[in-house]
Design a protein that fits this description.
CATH superfamily: Ribonuclease H-like superfamily/Ribonuclease H
Strand content: 15-25%
Largest sheet: 6 strands, mixed
Helix content: 25-40%
Number of strands: 6
Order of helices and strands: HHEEEHEHEHEHHH
Shape: globular
CATH class: Alpha Beta
CATH topology: Nucleotidyltransferase, domain 5
Radius of gyration: 18 Å
Length: 221
């Protein structure tokens, strides 16, 4: 316990401020919760060896997307893989203003605060952020998370299906503008989240706690 206190004391101020946010009383309704939808573009899919190239995020509050408070940063590429450029289009050089990994992660943590994080296939994006935090000798993110892929399965008749973002965009008539950019995918996923919630509300009454339940007996699955 003494060691943990000593370690915490030496964490940077931005991390202390982040942790402090979770001591505040948290909202317990969907409408009063601040969600942050985010996406990462990376050099690959290996959590240990690949690196984040960009992070895009956008806030949702009271069922509305706040475009004016969107977040987008590009990271300096110490690990460059030419084969991944075809997917995300991010070059090692170019005119984009890029931040170091430490600067980018600090700015992202400051942006998300204690919001509920949403992504499509959340686990990968979260683990990429956590891997960067580990390199900074910091703990993992504390935020609650929602995976739109899992949330989609809560819709009646969707239990056994597993679809990528492109297929779900077609199903919900979401334009795929800026697909495979972090900010573009974050916005698309935000629209998807709201459409899934709207669909669920037509089927039954849903509550904030239902968003996180994965047990058929307890929640929407």
């Amino acid at each position: 316990m003494i060691f943990s206190w000593f370690t915490y004391k030496h964490y940077p101020d931005f991390w202390k401020a982040y942790v402090k946010k979770f001591k505040q009383k948290q909202p317990n309704t969907i409408e009063s919760t601040r969600f942050v939808v985010f996406d990462t573009e990376t050099t690959g899919l290996n959590i240990s060896s690949d690196r984040i190239l960009s992070i895009g995020a956008i806030r949702i509050f009271n069922n509305s997307i706040n475009v004016s408070e969107s977040f987008e940063i590009y990271l300096k590429q110490e690990e460059f893989k030419i084969e991944s450029v075809e997917i995300h289009g991010i070059l090692k050089e170019g005119n984009l203003i890029k931040q170091t990994e430490k600067e980018a992660i600090k700015n992202f943590v400051n942006y998300i605060e204690n919001s509920v994080l949403i992504a499509h296939h959340t686990a990968f994006d979260i683990e990429m952020i956590n891997a960067a935090l580990k390199r900074m000798k910091l703990p993992k993110l504390k935020n609650k998370t929602i995976d739109t892929g899992i949330l989609y399965k809560k819709i009646k008749g969707k239990k056994d299906n597993h679809f990528n973002l492109d297929i779900l965009c077609d199903e919900f008539n979401i334009p795929k503008h800026d697909r495979h950019t972090s900010s573009g995918d974050a916005f698309i996923t935000a629209l998807l989240f709201l459409k899934i919630i709207a669909k669920l509300k037509t089927e039954r009454t849903i509550h904030y706690s239902d968003l996180f339940r994965a047990n058929e007996k307890n929640g929407l699955l």
